[in-house]
Amino acid sequence: MPWFIKTKSEREAKKKLKDDIWIQCQSCGAHVFRQDFTNNLNVCPKCDWHGKLTAYERIGMILDSGTFKEMFETIRPCDPLQFVDGKGPYSEKVETARAKTKLNESIVTGSGKINGLNVVMGVMDFRFLGGSLGSGTGEKILQAANYAYDNRVPCIIFSASGGARMHEGILSLMQMAKTCAGVARLDERKIPFISVLTDPTTGGVSASYAMVGDVNLAEPGALIGFAGRRVIEQTIKQKLPEDFQTAEFVKEHGFVDKIVHRKDLKETLFTILSYYNR
Amino acid sequence: MERELEFEKPIAEMEKAIEKLKALAVDNKGDFFNQIAELERKCEERKEEIYDTLTPWQTVQVARHPRRPVLYDYISMIFTSFVELHGDRCYGDDHAMVGGFATLGTQKVMLIGHSKGKNVDENVKRNFGMARPEGYRKAIRLMRLAEKFNLPVVTFIDTAGAFPGLDAEERGQAEAIARNLTEMAKLEIPVVAIVTGEGGSGGALGIGVADVVLMLSNAVYSVISPEGCASILWRDAAYASNAAESLKITAKSLLSLGVIDEIIKEPAGGAHNNPAAAAEAVKAAILKHLKKLTTLSGQKLTARRFEKFSSMGKFTK
Q1: Going by fewer Cβ within 10 Å, which terminus of chain B is more open, N or C?
Q2: Which of A135, A208, A231 sits opposite B164 (nearest CB)?
Q3: Distance CA B23, CA B89 (A)
Q4: What range defines the domain where residue A65 resides?
Q5: Helix (H, G, I), strand (E, B) or coil at B285
Q6: Are residues B92 and B24 part of one domain?
Q7: Average pLDDT over residues B285-306
Q8: Is the alpha carbon torsion for B217, B223, B228, B234 positive or negative?
């Protein structure tokens, strides 16, 4: 075979090598070194676009090193409806997601410290079925809120979710009520609940715990909204503004307190919690 | 009576036959009395049969039936007094969400519900029962008022969903619903919710965090419309009937999943076939549950509600 013709596997190997070294920013399209991107907390060094993080990457970024104690980690989906869609059973999707992410649910929960302050934290991971709100997710959020209630520590939830998990039908919808009942109880004991909305926070997650933080923070450029863009365009038959449902749009309309660059998030959380005078 | 739904055709044919026979009876002055009675009995049986074996997708059709009783029908049929209250005190008055002081038998309540229309004009005014943030904010304002007045809250759920529009997003549809979920969890008064027609996702749940959740036998309650689910998971809205099946959205399924507490049986042929009987059944069920709930203290109620919603969902530990 001539030297200039490459087999499919050679081409793929080369592309993989390229992807290992370079990454293309989804916002500005710039090619940046993967290493630079990762060192910059998955934020594009050229345009400040905030890429997604895994739950553990996020935890590593926010909590003091070595303080994280994971809780409720064995909770996982059980396919209560025996749901099968056009592409197969839900149970198979769950197994694929578990194998791919090494997670049991779309959220990781646990306790830890932020500059020495005790907190309980839940961090959603978009890689697990689009961060969807399943029964297990709801249970973990409720347990985290209950831990905050029992131990009188602030509760922080990082959201990254497309919304409800259709494969669990009505039980997924009920997680909205369940998680809200959990965080509502924190008011009774005057325990702070901080919600951090990251890309994306939409549907049933935005319409439950994510929007009712005592303080709502958001990452720059995050997609935040209730209904999907396409659904709205079809309903009202008009084009939506370019910045529609961005963190900046939502802040301008009064529903988040602050947009915080990822590099400042830990310090911002600490500063806010340091005002908690109880 | 006109019959719009495909599976109601056998009923329509029998009804037509009965009408003909009745006409004949009048013309010929003959004695068809027994025959007519027999046919009517058979027709009722057939109705029962058909309605007892509806598929989930057929149930969706009944739940959305254009002649299905809507909130104002129930108000005129079973509530002896209704003092409607308007506005959310923030932005405006949403006609898709209606509420006010109401009397049911001897029980005074705060009545709140989605309001669908029955013709084009009404539906335009009421946005087809799809509330905007101001609707949800009006609802929670009235619930707090009920708490102050020590009145139980009764909510009627019948919506395709919260309105998905630009203005609704700008005014915080997500926050409005989320706020209702947290605030309803705290209410120190009894709350009874009835899904009378369509229980469409967050838009339904936004007034649905109740001590007792009732559901009419042909109502549906779902996380997403079957069409929406089909277009996402099957990539084709034509699979709506499959989605309706998979999503488990009928009253029977929801009762077995522990999401609702009781099914209110509709008259044969569905609520639209006999609205008065459906309304009486709704009234009896509400009064029965309120009788028990009104004996409980505010703290007991919130504790029970917390337990109820805490236990929702199924997962592996």
Answers
A1: C
A2: A231
A3: 58
A4: 52-274
A5: helix
A6: no
A7: 98
A8: negative
Using one digit for the tens of pLDDT, what is the confidence trace for A216-256?
A: 999 999 999 999 888 888 888 888 888 899 999 999 999 99
Q: Could you give the CA distance from residue B313 to residue A137 in angstroms, rounded to a whole number?
A: 10
| CA nearest neighbour of A110 among A140, A82, A80 | A140
Position B152 in a domain: yes
Are B89 and B49 found together in one domain?
Answer: no
My answer on whether A190 and A238 are in the same domain is: yes
pLDDT of residue B2: 55
- The sign of the CA dihedral A224, A68, A191, B188 is positive
Helices (H), chain B: 9-28, 33-52, 56-63, 71-78, 120-125, 133-149, 166-170, 173-186, 201-205, 226-229, 240-247, 251-256, 275-293, 298-310
A1 part of a folded domain: no
Residues in chain A with CB shorter than 8 Å from the CB of B233 are 85-87, 166-167
| AA identity, residue B292 | K
Residue B270 belongs to some domain of the structure: yes
Asked if the model's pLDDT at residue A55 lies above 70, the reply is yes
Nearest Cα neighbor of B19 from B64, A130, A268, B3 is: B3
Total domains present in chain B: 2
> Could you please report the per-residue DSSP string of A204-271?
HHHTTGGG--SEEEE-TT-BEESS-HHHHHHHH-SPPPTTTTBHHHHHHTTS-SEE--GGGHHHHHHH
Same-domain pairing of B46 and B64: no
- Residue A167: DSSP 8-state: G
Cross-chain Cβ contact B172/A253 below 8 Å: yes
Question: How far A46 CA sits from the closest chain B CA (Å)?
Answer: 30
d(CA B168, CA B170): 5
Q: Are A141 and A109 in contact (CB under 8 A)?
A: yes
Distances (CA, A) of A167 to A92, A226, B171: 12, 19, 30
Number of domains within chain A: 2
Q: State how far residue A139 is from chain B, nearest Cα, in angstroms.
A: 8
Q: Which of A196, A99, A104 is nearest to A157 (CA)?
A: A196
CA–CA separation, A173 vs A49, rounded Å? 32
**Same domain assignment for residues A31 and A80:** no
Distance from CA of B235 to the nearest CA of A (A): 8
> Which tens digit of pLDDT belongs to each residue from B96-132?
999 999 999 999 999 999 999 999 999 999 999 999 9
- CB-count exposure of residue B149 (10 Å: 0-12, 13-18, 19+): exposed
Q: How confident is the model at residue B1 (pLDDT cuts 50, 70, 90)?
A: very low
User: Is B312's CB within 8 Å of A85's CB?
Assistant: no
Is the residue at B315 inside a domain? no
Whether residues B72 and B12 share a domain: the answer is: no
From the list A222, A193, A220, A189, the residue with the least C-alpha distance to A208 is A193
ipTM of the complex: 0.94
Residue in B247, B299, B312 to test binding to A, most A beta-carbons within 10 Å: B312
Residues B48 and B68 occupy one common structural domain: no
Residue A169 at interface with chain B, using a CB cutoff of 8 Å? yes
Strand partners for A218: A197, A259
